[in-house]
Amino acid sequence: MKHLPLEEEVLATLRPTQQERDHVCGLAGRLLALIAGSGKAQGMVVGSVARHTWLRGDRDLDVFMLFDPTLPREELELQGLALARSVAGTYTDKLHEKYAEHPYINANIDDVDVDLVPCYKVDSATRIQSAVDRTPFHTRYITDRINGLIDDVLLLKRFTKAGGIYGSDQMTEGFSGYLCELLVLHYGGFTPLLEAAAGWRPHIVIDIEHHMAKEFDEPLVVIDPVDPRRNVAAAVSLDKMAGFVELARGYLASPSDVFFAHPPGRCILKQELAAVIRERKTFVYAIVFATPPYIPEVVVPQLKRSLLSVCELLERNGFAVHHADYDMQPEQCMFLFELLVGELPSIRRHAGPPVWNRVNADKFREKHLAERAAGPYIAEGRYEMELPRVYTTAKGLLSSQELLITASLGKHIRLSLESRWTLLEGADCWQEEFAPFIAGFFDRCSPLVRILRKR
Hints:
It is built from 17 helices and 15 strands. With 455 residues, it is of the alpha+beta class. It has 4 domains: 129 residues, Beta Polymerase, domain 2 (2-Layer Sandwich); 111 residues, Orthogonal Bundle (Poly(a)-polymerase, middle domain), CATH 1.10.1410.30; 129 residues, Alpha-Beta Plaits, CATH 3.30.70; 38 residues, no CATH class. The radius of gyration is 27 Å and the shape is globular. The protein starts with a helix and ends with a helix.
């Protein structure tokens, strides 16, 4: 595939150096030899290193340890962890146990981030016993077909990283490396992909092997070539898909190396935040609490659900939410709210049933007859009355732990809030660890708009 001169210049910075290849591949070979020497499993390098689609500087090495599929699941975890610890322990004593569908070992060995993952050696992706069993089939599929398109994958990975839409984790909701590889394969290159993506609409279906076995309702559907019941693009949100579409259109209209540049690190100082809030004349609050001790794949969906629930709580009490978002750092999480109103009158309207709904209308009238308030009166054919407002300030509402806990919070978020949390207001919402998040909160723009402003 012929590339533009500017793309060739970019590729010269993306391809790993020979020294880097020798270093990473040499380590991979040594790890595979240790696994084979154990006699317990077969080793296999998977991921971008195995497929030669890794970017310079991304020294992530995924080594899978394939065990006999007749081994019980509990034994797979025990023996897999033991072997992973033994292999990594040959080089370092700084090991970290992580958890996907089952535990694995992560270690930094010779300046390479290594994952040692146990899985079953199954003969078909349709016979997998855990999600990780599918990964070796991905590697074989891409490796057999990617020749001649590796540079296109490198361009796409850098393009999506620069646009802030690379990564299938819960926080990013973007494009995984495997998805990038499949898209390049399907369309035959980086430029043909962008030309097609410029016309994408939600719910487009890409089925390379023409074997889709179920329907999907995600915005972007890319059927896994090795598993007809899986959508590789399931993590891609509607907004990240739209971001990719506009980036494709922008690049095709005016190609530039700025589309491949690292996104700048954004930050904000406390005095800058104070000035922003004064100018916008809005009401800003933050709830800060300890990060639950679980992996992001567990915590992030609960953060999303909990934030939405607190927003609904604010709205039900009359406090209009202009914008709300969350951030998760290693030690603390933050819910950040920008409200259009921070204080309300001490009364509120309470609508009742239509007068001709006799049974309910009589009940409503009798219930509120003795209250010393305006009403019940008739407005637009139905009973209505004024009631005292329980919370006249957003700060008072958000300060109520009892009320906050009654919201539909995720289990681990609730436990963290029940333990301890802090409510911050205005410029006091500024916290150093959340400074980039707060900057992005008030500096929202689409990926293409951000790039165009840099030009």
